Amino acid sequence: MNIGIDKIGFAAPSYVLDLADLALARQIDPNKFKVGLLQSEMAVAPITQDIVTLGAQAAAAILTDEDKAAIDMVIVGTESSIDQSKAAAVFLHQLLDIQPFARSIEIKEACYGATAGLSLAKSHIAQFPHSKVLIIASDIAKYGIASGGEPTQGAGAVAMLVTADPSIMILNNDNVCQTRDIMDFWRPNYDKYPRVDGKFSTEQYTDCLTTTFDYYVEKTGKSLADFAAMCLHIPFSKQGLKGLQAICHQDEETLNRLTERFHEAIVYNKVVGNIYTGSIFLSLLSLLENSQSLKTGDAILFYSYGSGAVCEIFSGTLVEGYRNQLLTDRLDQLNARKRLDVTEYEAIFFEEIKLDEAGNAIDLPLDDTPFALQNIEQHKRIYRKN
What domains are defined for the chain? Predict the structure, then answer.
């Protein structure tokens, strides 16, 4: 049975900051961001937008009533959870009007969680071929004003519908994983922002990639020459490019070809920023919607990395008609976002929901986006669907 990605959607907040403006405000050469990081813009989320609202918007764009009647599992991968107990998937299940007899869960392992969700979805569909599984990778990356990670912040959600006989990509059974107990990026419960050992983290990203890829080659007998493109986790675009170069340094022809595809795969990441669990799948969406070189039957290699650390290498094969499931104007939609100046961005960054003694939100702003946080009553989050 062929199992894989049948549909894929994406949503970003309606605000964006040009990194050239941020660089000037921080008295930094803009090329440090534009060239050094390969990042151009950063999506910015107001307090009425979170992983639930972004995830709902991404999923609503691709789901039909038939899908909602067949979905019996909802998986959210995130490291921006809104509750230490209740899964964001439960909120999303209700907001999306999915039939009630479904399993709804949340998976956490830094930027890797949604990839783990894919394996769980595959196992479920193998057992129940008529089922459909909704996977949502939704995150908001915040590092702090004037911090080293500030220009790599971002926000957004990718939704994927996993089914038998998929319309976009078959997920191949060649997954190889690696786990390392390291402290390269972590977020204690008592900290508002993550703690990062930047140099160590980039080294671990690359070393996990090279060692896992070597094991993948040993287990599968495949090489990079077998793949039309490669999608990697994108904490910032330059990191992904360095990773690709690290495993393809001796084959110039393959490196040049995969580098061309890589630049097509970061078109959206460059103007959205890091969305943690969704970054690799945003890269896939960018590749599929911006490359004219791909064709039916092409294999795509994936490298998913979540700090702490867990990584996975796996592949997928494009199926006939996959382009029919994609958009041609997504970049136009991203370009239509409201552009913030640095003062506006900083005001949104520091804005927090204020609660009274009974746990009710005070003066929560109105938000007319398709899904929004409407209120908090007695510490209970209430979402609105427009």
Answer: 3-168+327-385 (3.40.47.10), 171-322 (3.40.47.10)
